[in-house]
């Protein structure tokens, strides 16, 4: 066989290798990574697409209570303050919020929202010093934006892995452009989810779709959205408060997505807010203290227990005082339902 024929056969063989696999093999042959690592990288995407990854769980394999950092937003406090205060109250998990770029208020320690440019080790050390873990990363990008939404989500997913968590939330713009039809929206979200799901699989991080906009807060629309892309990494960050405010039944919503719940926003809604806003909005930033509002927590937690959920109930309230009462109330609910705390 001539040299030319050999080259042609080699080239033809390369065309049968997926581009990602070929790249890994090429890098390995150059001595930059081990052959074993290259092989693992070459099969990871295909394996992830078929595998059924285990859902995130508390270290003790049981349901636990965490705290979203929104509880200190109106107090003009930093992430460091919020993590330390949460630990002092008694929380074992926190849910910080990260954004792309820089925020002067955050740099000045007047805001808990932190830049994705921050060294992940700094966040890990901050949590370790306080004795808490991160239940999920709040880096809500926009499902209706296939450009910035994908870029933001991908950075959040990689950052989540770097700080030691495996859940990142996402939702859609609560006010989609007026020109966007429902068909446009679902076509766009399919593209966005497909791109993000690849990064989830590569990093072992779940995407928790949260109920907060016109296409996620309604049962029929959310279940349709979840069927757009077949990926075990696309799950649900269940928010009963937002679902209630949208006019839906939060218990029916939970039933509809129970098999996909990967993280929970424990958000209660006061009677006053319910009377003023229900059916007029699709969500709200924070709720009242758990147990003070309209949500039946025994019903919610009981259904999660029955489904085998062992993840985190992340409280979304507006003040430190509400955070204290929420932890006390939810701990009581878990105890009454015979769930160890």
Helical amount: 40-55%
Number of strands: 11
Query: What is the beta-strand fraction?
Result: 5-15%
N-to-C span: 72 Å
How many helices? 14
User: Largest sheet, order of strands side by side?
Assistant: 5-2-1-11-10-9-8-7-6
Which fold does the CATH topology of the largest domain refer to? TIM Barrel
Topology:
Blueprint: H1 3-15, H2 19-29, H3 35-50, E1 64-68, H4 79-89, E2 93-95, E3 98-99, H5 104-107, E4 114-115, H6 120-130, E5 133-134, E6 137-142, H7 148-163, E7 167-171, H8 182-203, E8 206-210, H9 219-226, E9 234-239, H10 240-245, H11 250-257, E10 261-266, H12 271-277, H13 297-306, E11 312-315, H14 320-336
Parallel strand pairs: 1-2, 1-11, 2-5, 3-4, 6-7, 7-8, 8-9, 9-10, 10-11
Describe the structure.
- This protein folds into two domains: 47 residues, no CATH class; 281 residues, Divalent-metal-dependent TIM barrel enzymes (TIM Barrel).
- It has 14 helices and eleven strands.
- Helix 8 links the parallel strand 7 and strand 8.
Summarize the structure.
The chain is α/β, with parallel strands linked by helices and 341 residues long. It has helices at 3-15, 19-29, 35-50, 79-89, 104-107, 120-130, 148-163, 182-203, 219-226, 240-245, 250-257, 271-277, 297-306, 320-336; strands at 64-68, 93-95, 98-99, 114-115, 133-134, 137-142, 167-171, 206-210, 234-239, 261-266, 312-315.
